[in-house]
Amino acid sequence: MKVNAIIPARYESSRLAGKPLLKIKDKTIIEMVYERTCSSSLLDDVVVATDDRRIFDHVLSFGGKVVMTSSEHRSGTDRIAEVAKGLDADVIVNVQGDEPLITNKVINALIRPFRDDPELKMSTVMARIADKRELFNPNVVKVVCDRAGDAIYFSRSPIPFRKSPEMALEFEVKNEEMGHWFKHVGIYGYKRDFLLAFSQMDEGMLESIEGLEQLRALENGVRIHVEETNYSGIGIDTNEDYLQLKELLGDME
């Protein structure tokens, strides 16, 4: 089974333009993501997919592989599908270009289910929610799974919802109960042929309401296997995120 990773990277961003080229210590965010992705022993190749010449040239400058894509794509999934068309691979791993602390353990957790289950088309990962604020934060996507570890639903709402006499939207949660809730970490594995088909599917009702692309797969009856990891995901979406990560890694001036 041949497995390739594709890292979509855009320069334009409504909240933090040029974030792939922002530096932490002596490396850019996209360089950190690329190097950490390459550390997975289960990957055969890694390539960055971008529509921006600045990112393209920068990836080449540190010895990475990169492909220029159309600037008309609706999402990162469409961007990696364009690149996947030209790859001789069985499985494609989508690693977000703003996850500079991604680990090989997480990437390997995405890949292994495809080795165990030849019928599997899509995989992703989740982590236990430890902070109550995340449970009620709509920017933190929650996921519930069946006993086989396959996704039942993804939502921006706190699921499962706790029934109470008050039926309060922000229900009471005891610290010892926090292990009942999981957040979705937005990296994916796909069978290549399914990825190409998935990118052509129409947006579904649930996807439109929640703004979650993975619901398109569930609405079309596609099983998504979800592996539990200790990686919570540290994406860079705002300048505050960037400064927090710099502080975490000891790079504050």
Give an overview in words.
- The protein has one domain: Spore Coat Polysaccharide Biosynthesis Protein SpsA, Chain A.
- Helix content is 29%, strand content 22%.
- It contains 9 helices and 11 strands.
- The mean pLDDT is 91.
Q: Give the helices and strands as they follow along the chain.
A: EEEHEHEHEHEHEEEHHHEH
Mean of all residue-level pLDDT scores: 91
CATH superfamily: Spore Coat Polysaccharide Biosynthesis Protein SpsA, Chain A
How many structural domains are formed by the residues? 1
Largest sheet: 7 strands, mixed
Global geometry: globular
Count of extended strands? 11
Going across the biggest sheet, name each strand in turn. Answer: 5-4-1-6-10-7-11
Report the span from N to C terminus. 46 Å
CATH-derived architecture: Alpha-Beta Complex
User: How much helicity do the residues have?
Assistant: 25-40%
Question: What's the CATH topology name?
Answer: Spore Coat Polysaccharide Biosynthesis Protein SpsA, Chain A
The level 1 CATH classification is Alpha Beta
Instruction: Provide the gyration radius in Å.
Output: 18 Å
- The tally of helices reads 9
Task: Give a summary of the structure in a few sentences.
With 253 residues, the chain is of the alpha/beta class. It has helices at residues 29-38, 53-61, 76-84, 104-116, 132-135, 192-198, 205-210, 215-219, 239-248; strands at residues 3-9, 23-24, 27-28, 45-50, 66-68, 91-94, 122-128, 142-145, 151-155, 182-191, 224-228.
